[in-house]
Amino acid sequence: MQDRPDDKYSRILNASIQVISEKGLEKSSVSEIVKKAGIAQGTFYLYFSSKSDLVPAIANSLLTKILDRMKRKVHGGESFWSTLNVVINETFIVTEEHKDIIVLVYSGLAVNHSMEKWEEVYRPYYEWLEIEISKAVQKEEINSDINVKWTSRTIINLIENAAERYYIGGEQDESLTVYKEELFKFIRKSLIAG
């Protein structure tokens, strides 16, 4: 989940997010993307072999953004429960901000790319949460008999699914605050020895 430092790459990626958000992947053209990015069309093909290759790059960009936001707010000394609140809140914020592009990313990766690519994009996010969960196990904040790797993936998937159901699926029969509180309580109960 590393951003490429190249300015042209970033300009292409940002322009593609804007154009694809407005028109969708199928109706967007490379010509529109490069025009918005202010680069030559040939430059696009130095970074991407096709328009569909933008999908994993966009997914990578969004996950890098959310993980960076979380890392800025989690400094390592707080409880796992504070970290979990940050994960929930930041996931909901990014989902609301980028709901159209998230739908595109899911459909694009599902159709055009393998699950291995999906896992590769998510790996740094999963690994970061695995470290946080391991610390919580060591501090005896959560059950010690869990599979940390599996638990990390499950928590991330559950939170993302809840945020997407709220913002994309329109499941807003409860306030956002209640929705996030219920999600937090569910995860907490599943991780505490009882």
TrEMBL record:
A GO MF term: DNA binding
Pfam families: TetR_C_26, TetR_N
The entry's keywords: DNA-binding
UniProt cross-references to InterPro entries, sorted A to Z: DNA-bd_HTH_TetR-type_CS, Homeodomain-like_sf, HTH-type_Tx_Regulator, HTH_TetR, Tet_transcr_reg_TetR-rel_C_sf, YvdT_C
Residue ranges occupied by any HTH tetR-type domain in the UniProt entry: 6-66
Keyword tRNA processing tagged: no
Ranges of the DNA-binding region feature: 29-48
Entry-linked Gene3D superfamilies: Tetracycline Repressor, domain 2 (1.10.357.10)
PANTHER family, A to Z: ACREF/ENVCD OPERON REPRESSOR-RELATED, TRANSCRIPTIONAL REGULATOR, TETR FAMILY
Name of the featured protein: TetR family transcriptional regulator
Natural source organism: Sporosarcina globispora (Bacillus globisporus)
